[in-house]
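Hey, can you fold this one?
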Amino acid sequence: MRTTLQATLARTIFAAAATLFAVEAVTAQAASDRAMKETMSIGDEPGRISTEEVVITDGPFARQVVFFRSNEEPGTVVIHTSERFLHVVMPGNRALRYGIGVGREGFQWSGLVKITRKAEWPDWTPPPEMIVRQPYLPRFMAGGPGNPMGARALYLGSTVYRIHGTNQPETIGQSISSGCFRLANGDVIDLYERVPMGAKVVIRHGATI
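Sure. Predicted structure:
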């Protein structure tokens, strides 16, 4: 009799443990799915097509000349990360302002660099640390309308960061990248023509240092 009761108890405990394990597994998978969706929602979209004509035409992130008091020489690029703006300094306390997408929390930075390379429809090779965070990304993608690097790229010093276009123009004004600065394709083409090799680039978190 005792043996039968022990066996029944053992089966009950085993069934309860199996049920608990199954619930935990489902919960863990749901959490993993949510995490993946969150990662995907802020990640790049290789293959999505966006033409070079796309520009931001309305609102504060539209390209426009603004009042801009600065001690920097005309032609200097000044990026205000917190405000989501890139300025090209002009004479007379003015600047041409572009709306940009910036690095998400933990990927924002500041510094002083120069434009060391320029490329039209650049190829994209995500760095290893990005692959670790977003393993679904391709290891290499040739330049073109479906490339997340967009229509143009200006490379910042010896860093891995760039000012570049995007095939996700709706992300302009957001904290979304892994440290690069993105513009709509039409805007980055305009910037590309204005900013020469060797131009000074000042990256700040706000309007003042």
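The chain is about 25% helix and 25% strand. Let me know if you want another pass with a different chain boundary.
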